Amino acid sequence: MRDLVTFGETMLRLSPPDSERLERTDELEVFVGGAASNAAIAANRLGADAAWLSKVPDTPLGRRVVNGLHEHALETNVVWSREGRQGTYYLERAGKPRGSAVIYDRADSAFTTTTAQELDVNAVQNARVFFMTGITPALSPTLRETTTNLLKAAKQGGTTTAFDCNYRGKLWSPETARETLTALFPGIDVLVVAARDARSVLEFEGDPRQLAHKLGSQYDFETVVVTRGSEGAVGWHDSVVHEQPAYETDTVSEIGTGDAFTGAFIARRVAGDDVPTALEYAAATAALKRTIPGDIALVTEDEVERVRTAESDGLSR
């Protein structure tokens, strides 16, 4: 039985070097990244046996994505499509006041046509945990149905289901997201949501502790994790809320930080850690990810352990 199976689109990310503008750059750096595969790699690197399910165009760009994930020793289980394109996105990095900007170019990608019937549902039902994010149902009506069907299949197989709301305003409105996500909640055991999205998308009120308790109580989740950016996260489990501050970090790239956090949290829960300990590993992994260019948390278990216990080395929470 595999520890973790994830499902989602992985894209090619194209970025000008340093803080250059897209409109004048002569070169683009290429990275491979997507929420589901990022989380799977983070989990793998913390000792979990993880795999990624998806649908990918049988093109040079599609093969570039899969080959890029194989470079990180991630098991891939993909449907190769003769139709559709490879999703990409562009990231223009900058500090204040300009700020970084993301441009998606993923419409009509091969992934948007994925149905549950095409996928290896047995892999989902034979995993200990199945993970998706709210990005997937935001991409197409077909994927909304597929998301529902995969969650149902996971529950039928006795698989624990984990879901990160991961709201993206460029993909859908808060109203559509709220209607879609809350309809999925009965099929979800472990929910991860940013505090800002719990308020603006799900329309809950309160501080992160209150948000976690209200969500857990109303929807009967097993576990709720509410992330709160630079202030860390809180986790609700067995009607108890646990607080986890963020670890101090110098940010090189914030992309993929949430995915690293979630992948590490799942990996440690699968390994048998309680929620407070899993939150420590998740926060440490997220802090390390912020020091690493690209979308993927290229961390080791020893590094994460060192950060988690490093107050004596001068690294504070």
Lay out the secondary structure:
Blueprint: E1 2-7, E2 11-15, E3 29-33, H1 35-45, E4 50-57, H2 60-70, E5 75-81, E6 88-92, E7 101-105, H3 121-125, E8 127-133, H4 135-138, H5 141-156, E9 160-164, H6 174-184, E10 190-194, H7 195-200, H8 208-219, E11 223-227, E12 233-237, E13 240-244, H9 257-270, H10 275-289, H11 301-308
Helix pairs in contact: 1-9, 9-10, 10-11
How many domains, in number, for the residues?
Answer: 1
Radius of gyration of CA atoms, rounded to a whole number: 18 Å
Classify the fold: give the CATH topology.
UDP-N-acetylmuramoyl-L-alanine:D-glutamate ligase
Spatial order of strands in the largest sheet: 5-4-1-8-9-10-11-12-13
Structural class: alpha/beta
Low-confidence stretches: none
InterPro entries: Carb_kinase_PfkB-like, KDG_KDGal_kin_Halo, PfkB_dom, Ribokinase-like
Organism: Salinadaptatus halalkaliphilus
GO molecular function: kinase activity
Keywords: Kinase, Transferase
Summarize the structure.
GO terms for molecular function: kinase activity. By secondary structure, the protein is of the alpha/beta class. It has helices at 35-45, 60-70, 121-125, 135-138, 141-156, 174-184, 195-200, 208-219, 257-270, 275-289, 301-308, and strands at residues 2-7, 11-15, 29-33, 50-57, 75-81, 88-92, 101-105, 127-133, 160-164, 190-194, 223-227, 233-237, 240-244.
Textual characterization of the structure:
This protein has a single domain (2-313), classed as UDP-N-acetylmuramoyl-L-alanine:D-glutamate ligase, CATH 3.40.1190.20. 36% of the residues lie in helices and 23% in strands. It has helices spanning 35-45, 60-70, 121-125, 135-138, 141-156, 174-184, 195-200, 208-219, 257-270, 275-289, 301-308, and strands spanning 2-7, 11-15, 29-33, 50-57, 75-81, 88-92, 101-105, 127-133, 160-164, 190-194, 223-227, 233-237, 240-244. The protein has a nine-stranded mixed sheet, with helices on both faces. Strands 3-2-6-7 form a four-stranded mixed sheet. α1 (35-45) packs across α9 and α10 crosses α11 (301-308). The mean pLDDT is 95. Belongs to the carbohydrate kinase PfkB family.
